[in-house]
Amino acid sequence: MGWKGTIRSLQATSRRIERDAEKRRRELQKQQKAYARMAELEQAEYEVDVWNNYIDVLQSVHKGCGDPVDWLSIARADAPVQPVFFGSKEAQARQAVQNYRPGFLSRLLKIDRKKKQKLNEAVDVAKKDDQDNFDSLYQQWQQDSADHEQQTGIATGILDGEPRARINAIEFFAPFDELSELGSSIHFCIDEISGVLLVTLHVHGGHVIPTEIKSLLKSGKLSVKKMPVGKRNELLQDYICSCVLRVARELLNLLPDDMVIVTAVDELLNTATAIRKSYLFLVWL
């Protein structure tokens, strides 16, 4: 498998086993366009379905994870082959000109010149098509070559134990896009003394965790109630644990590290002082 196939395979693997909750979330997003046309009871059922799915997503972040990455294969992957200009369409068009032999009727009706002219014009069109096709292939080769150089450079750095290469690998594979979609953010750095990867997960629970509970009444109508503080804190705890497990698993599969330190941080409101303050929730080694 060439370098590009290897990279695509690894990227696809990291997203191959999509959780049922995540699949359902994307299906519901597609249905949102038809929401305005739904009847009241259908809208209520849809909103509850979306709410239940969102809770499921928050509690199952850890269930999705990519397979281990073979950095040696990436480092040894062959470079993309530079395209060669063949001009095959032009050659075929010129051959058609050479093979043209006007018949008696064509000469009699004096249409042989027009036919020959069209064949010559077809040569020009074919020549342009060949050039356009080659230009496209060449531009793609230039991009692929740049990507290959970047990716093999990352792989070589990983194998040589370069600290920055680990950060570059995380940025390239972007295994935490789902967390960003939910509203959380992640920052990375390398401890200068131990060389251990330090990860800070900013939960942003105030934005991620819902404040309401949606359900259907026996009548089929929508019920919206304020989520109790205890329930919300329980959901926040589940989400934090799920995220930390996901981050740790992704990094240990992506990098040849034996240990990472993941710290979950969130900013909460102190009801006694009315001041928002950052709190450390969990550390995973």
TrEMBL record:
It comes from Salmonella diarizonae. Residues 7-38 form a coiled coil. Keywords: Coiled coil. This is Uncharacterized protein.
